[in-house]
Amino acid sequence: MFKFWKKKPKPEETPVPATLATQTSLAEALSAAADNAQLSEIATLPEAGAVASAPAEFAAVEPAAPAAVEPVPAAVTPPPLPPLEEETPPAAETSAPARRSWRERLSGSAFARSLGTLFSRKPKLDEDLLEELETALITADVGISASTELVESLRKRLNRREFADADQLLAALRQALIALVQPIAQPLVMATQHKPFVVLMVGVNGVGKTTTIGKLARRYQQQGLDVMLAAGDTFRAAAVEQLKTWGERNRVPVVSQGSGSDAASVIFDALQSARSKNLDLLIADTAGRLHTQTGLMDELGKIRRVLGKIDAGAPHEVLLVIDGTTGQNAINQVRQFRAAIGVTGLVVTKLDGTAKGGVIFALAKEFGLPVRFVGLGESLDDLREFDATAFVDGLLPGAIGA
């Protein structure tokens, strides 16, 4: 009987679709974005995730993804202005340091040390001073003849009371030494009528002959000359390879043959090649040999005769390389090489090392041959033309007590 009282079920509440909720959230997000002048703040709204997951029908009103929105920079930094022209350092300030002076290079020689010690104080002008000076000159390889002549000249002037103190004696010694070597300070001048100009390098083993050739090639190449090298030291394979290395560095052609080849043949071929290419200079290496080896010394004469078949005047210059540490043995070397092939000029190397320094004075006194170049170090700039005044000033102290 109570069936009509049965309670009717309430109608179920219709759930809000997720898309409608998303649409509502989207509308709220757009409304909030419209009130905010900074578009970048959309990225911070909590509903951003819902917007990203909205269905395709709402794609038309979907805002841009937050990652694509570039934040407004706090401040704009202008690019730096270029430096003014006057602030740029000149090229001269960044160039390589100047090469060392003659005095710096020669200060370690026995000659410089002995004379520096002798005049390190105010010595008394007497016979003892002259005897000490003569001993210092002889032990520095100046030679007995040259040393005796120099000291005897000073003794006569001292007896005439020309020197008031040791400073004047030192100045007189400087003038006498310069006068002794000034005539041999003659740079190499290549005659223009000879093309190519042929320079033959000779010397004993270990004097730095091949290295000197490489430095000469660079020197004359920088002066605008076309240079060729001839590897005539066929007795030593390392010498050929060393000369080829110098040729590669300087981009200079090198004519060579196998080890043990005839040296005269190699140099002959080089001269023919240089003539055909109209080159300016040919520098030919030869095997290092002792001046006492008669057979090898005779080979130098053969080289001269073979070159004479092409050019009667070749070689136009024969440079004998002397090791500055050799001492008085250099006298014998010059004498023998001069007799074998006719030496026309000297190159004295290694004067910056343990050389005593006085051998050039002995050579000047004995032979009077021109000294074309001297070696004062290992770099290219240290092969220098002989300067008599600079050489003497580098050996003597600048003043008493210096």
From TrEMBL:
Q: Into which EC class is this enzyme placed?
A: hydrolase
Q: Which CDD domains match?
A: FtsY
The record's catalysed reaction(s) read:
GTP + H2O = GDP + phosphate + H(+)
**What does the record list as GO biological process?**
SRP-dependent cotranslational protein targeting to membrane
Stretches for region Disordered: 72-101
Q: What is its main location?
A: membrane
The record ties this protein, via Pfam families, to: SRP54, SRP54_N
- Its EC number is 3.6.5.4
Q: Where is the composition biased (Low complexity)?
A: 89-98
InterPro entries given for it? Answer: AAA+_ATPase, P-loop_NTPase, Signal_recog_particl_SRP54_hlx, SR_rcpt_FtsY, SRP54_GTPase_dom, SRP54_N_sf
An annotated GO cellular component of this protein is: plasma membrane
Q: How does it sit in the membrane?
A: Peripheral membrane protein
Where it sits in the cell: the answer is: Cell membrane; Cytoplasm
Gene Ontology MF terms in the entry: GTP binding; GTPase activity; signal recognition particle binding
Keywords in alphabetical order: Cell membrane, Cytoplasm, GTP-binding, Hydrolase, Membrane, Nucleotide-binding, Receptor
Residue stretches making up the SRP54-type proteins GTP-binding domain: 370-383
Q: Where does GTP bind?
A: 203-210, 285-289, 349-352
Entry function: Involved in targeting and insertion of nascent membrane proteins into the cytoplasmic membrane. Acts as a receptor for the complex formed by the signal recognition particle (SRP) and the ribosome-nascent chain (RNC). Interaction with SRP-RNC leads to the transfer of the RNC complex to the Sec translocase for insertion into the membrane, the hydrolysis of GTP by both Ffh and FtsY, and the dissociation of the SRP-FtsY complex into the individual components.
What is the annotated quaternary arrangement, including any partners?
Answer: Part of the signal recognition particle protein translocation system, which is composed of SRP and FtsY. SRP is a ribonucleoprotein composed of Ffh and a 4.5S RNA molecule.
Q: Which NCBIfam families match?
A: ftsY
Similarity section = Belongs to the GTP-binding SRP family. FtsY subfamily.
Task: Give the protein's recorded name.
Answer: Signal recognition particle receptor FtsY
The organism named in the record is Tahibacter aquaticus
UniProt gene name: ftsY
